[in-house]
Amino acid sequence: MEKLKSQKYKTIISFFMLTVGVIFASYALETFLIPNTILDGGVTGISIIISKLTNIPLSILVLILNIPLIYIGYKNMGRGFLIRTVYSMILFSLSLSYFSYFESITEQILLATVYGGALLGIGVGLVIHFGGCVDGTESVALVISKKTSFSVGQVVLVFNLIIYFVAGIIFGVDRALYSLLTYFITFKVIDFVSEGIDQTKSALIITEKGTDMANEIYKRLGRTVTRLKGNGLISGEKEVLYCVLTRMEIYELKKICNDMDESSFISISDVSEIIGNHIKSNKKTQQIIKRKKK
Fold first, then answer.
1. Does the pLDDT of residue 115 top 50, yes or no?
2. pLDDT value at position 197?
3. What is the mean pLDDT of the chain?
4. Is this model's pTM higher than 0.85 or not?
5. DSSP H/E element including 93
6. Are residues 23 and 151 in the same domain?
7. Are residues 45 and 185 in the same domain?
8. One domain for residues 122 and 261
């Protein structure tokens, strides 16, 4: 009973913070960035370009263009991610529509770039921290990362550079450069808020249910796990799991650990560099796991 109440309380808090994050992000876009033709990255950036050229409401474009990416995210992250993301994106679309009637806070481009980027970073950082998503670009980047040697961060950066290049052709080089500056500001603020913009993270999990938890992590996140034997000074024999994952997967990892073993201990750290072959979920690793089971 207590566990159910605690889980319900956490769910309410997470959706409240998702709401706050979405409001911050949409307010930053509509009152700082868009009036000064400063673009965000990802699907939102593409939506802004199309909206500027066609006068189609940004709120509609953001929702429509993200639909296929939501499905990709669901296939890779599961039902919990789908619920939080659908909620975040619908609310994001409604908030953009609402704040589009607000006047621009400032016409000074540098001020709009700095403060708009910072406020956008706070909003997106909160959404990411509580397991949601307002831009499906990272879902696609996650899929590409699993099938190639590129990291999620590298895929997103290349994608955004293409967007800013197109923006430079359409709106002028200065707008593209201001947009790129906004992107880096937003990037660093998300890092501060969500503690996870460094795309690669390492997780160390100490548990009594190592085998079951490792299988569940592979099943739901597609991440292979290294298992070690541990011995606690007081708690006795334990299993230690080590895996490398992305910031988008941290929320789901915590949920897996909490659902399977409430007494588990989790330590998450930044990974500045990976040397060697990082094993990801693909056909080859699936075949290896099947052979080991046999």
1. yes
2. 44
3. 85
4. no
5. helix 79-99
6. yes
7. yes
8. no
